[in-house]
Amino acid sequence: MRRLGKLFGVLVVVGLTNLDVIRLTSGMGWPVYWALLLGLLLCFLGVNIAPDWEKGAFARLKVMLGGEILIEIAAISFTLNLLLGIFYLMVLSGKGIITLTVWGVLLHLLVWLLLETVLIWNGFIRMYTSSVQLGVKWRILGLLFWWVPVVNLFFLWKICRIVKEEYQFETEKEEQNQIRRLNDTCKTRYPIVLVHGVFFRDRKCFNYWGRVPGELIRNGAEIFYGGQQSAARTKDAAAELRETILGVVAKTGCEKVNIIAHSKGGLESRYAISCLGLAPYVASLTTVNTPHQGCAFVDWLLERLPVGFYHGIAGRYNAALRRLGDTNPDFNAAVEDLTSRYCAQFNQETPDAPEVFYQSVGSKMKGWTSAPFPLNLAYLLVRRFEKENDGLVGVDSMKWGSRFRMASTPGHRGISHGDMIDLNRQNIRGFDVREFYVELVRELKEQGF
Fold it and tell me: Which SS3 state, helix, strand or coil, does residue 261 take?
């Protein structure tokens, strides 16, 4: 159906563009000409509204793919019209079959370029407004180089390729989910509580965990969020987390929960379990890229940053964090609790609860190009202290519990601290973050949690 839609679109555009020549060469009367023109214009409108003939033309993915299809129709019809124009000039005009006039040629070119422009801009608008994977970079580059001949063709090809890959990836995942949904792959015995890291909130402005919660829910998981403040002492945030989890247990009658905690959220979860009496209500704790041994580069920064400069940064962060919902943000305390000195003492004072299953996962960048700003620069700094790191945390510091698993990619991309929570909503070749968490939760289910 999609190929027929493209073919139909090409025929409509070519027919509209060359209707004037068809009238001249066939002796077509004006009533027939106007009837055909009206019919082709209506078809052209239909092509622009629903270029993909398959169902769900107005769903996000269909809108996005429709944009790519319109670009294809424009490219093919442009090429055909160019060849037809040469044919008219070299053959029909040369043999006297048609007589070319300046105004006639100008009108023909105007109609041709107008139709192609409508297709291309409609296609771009569709892709720019509906694609997730284009990101900021390709959107800006596409607009900046739109007017540069040849170069714009490269960006046009690149943008269309990204869109097609996104559509294929997402549709394959949806088909996979339709099969798994019948089995409730992620329906664990106990609900999942997702605990965010430092300087972010769960769902203020955007979901901290990106597309992960939706994917888990679609596969049967029951999801809750930690809800603790984003910048506070580990002990204070842990107290908030404790109240949240007790509330979940009371509300659902679930008895226990499974915690999946990212970054500093892992330390706060450990403290709540071991020191605040939460152990009887927690079946498992999975920490994700958590600095259990601290961050060596934080020690270095605190020793070398000028006091005034440091407090200035802290003040700005605290002001921003209040807008995110923190009642009493403390940038200084949050940062100091990430030092290796603090974490060494923390580990001695926070032994694992024997009734809780502990495991950890981590990742690493393979170069500074593995992540956008600011993690690309942070990676270069952290590498001075910990060669293998995710842009913030060293791999050795992430290891905790009875099992540690590394997320990895086969290529040179690497996986950053932000990639592990789908921060940029980016499909990474060789690493599907949503599938990673589905597998993680599926294993918890198989273990009886």
Answer: strand
Q: Is 150 within 8 Å of 408 (Cβ atoms)?
A: no
Strand segments (E) across 91-230: 192-195, 223-225
Q: pLDDT tens digits, residue range 72-95?
A: 999 999 999 999 888 877 776 666
**Burial environment of residue 349 by CB neighbours within 10 A (0 to 12, 13 to 18, 19 or more):** exposed
**Rounded CA gap, 415 and 442, in Å?**
22
Sheet of 223-225: strand order equals: 223-225, 192-195, 257-262, 282-288, 357-362, 404-406
| Residue 157 neighbours by CB distance under 10 Å | 12
Q: Which helix (H) or strand (E) holds 443?
A: helix 433-446
Extents of the domains making up the chain: 2-130, 186-446
- Where is average pLDDT lowest: 84-98, 237-251, 312-326, 388-402? 84-98
Residue pLDDT, tens place only, 250-263 = 999 999 999 999 99
pLDDT tens by residue, 309-330: 878 888 888 888 888 778 888 8
For residue 339, the SS3 value is: coil
Q: How confident is the model over 366-391, as a mean pLDDT?
A: 91
What class does CATH assign to 186-446?
alpha beta
Contacts of 166 (CB under 8 A, 6+ apart): 61, 64, 131, 132, 133, 427
Which H/E stretch holds residue 156? Answer: helix 151-181
The answer to whether 365 touches 391, Cβ cutoff 8 Å, is yes
Residue 288 — φ and ψ, nearest 5°?
A: -120, 115
Q: Which helix (H) or strand (E) holds 21?
A: helix 19-26
Helix (H) or strand (E) holding 34: helix 30-49
Distance CA 128, CA 118 (A): 15
b/e string for 388-423 if b means 16 or more Cβ within 10 A? bbbbbbbbebbbbbeeebebebeeebbbbbbbbbbb
